[in-house]
Write a structure and sequence with these properties.
With 56 residues, this protein is α+β, with helices and mostly antiparallel strands. The chain is built from 2 helices and 3 strands. It has one domain. Helix content is 30%, strand content 18%. Strands 1-3-2 form a 3-stranded antiparallel sheet. The radius of gyration is 11 Å and the shape is globular. It comes from Blautia wexlerae.
């Protein structure tokens, strides 16, 4: 499985790397692993939905 960092994923998902760090630490990104200080995220991970927004 290929992994990418929070900085690389922030460019794909269009949100900040800090927000992705928080999502990983909350367990909302399936398959994310922490190695040292860095979160490694599977390349094919799906962006978690924002529970604050309602689907219309």
């Amino acid at each position: 499985m290929d992994y990418i960092t929070t900085i690389e994923m922030s460019k794909i998902w269009g949100i900040s790397s800090r927000r992705i760090f928080l999502l990983c630490s909350q367990g909302r990104v399936p398959g994310a692993e922490k190695k040292g200080k860095t979160w490694l995220i599977p390349k094919d991970a799906v962006k978690p939905t924002d529970p604050r927004k309602k689907n219309r």
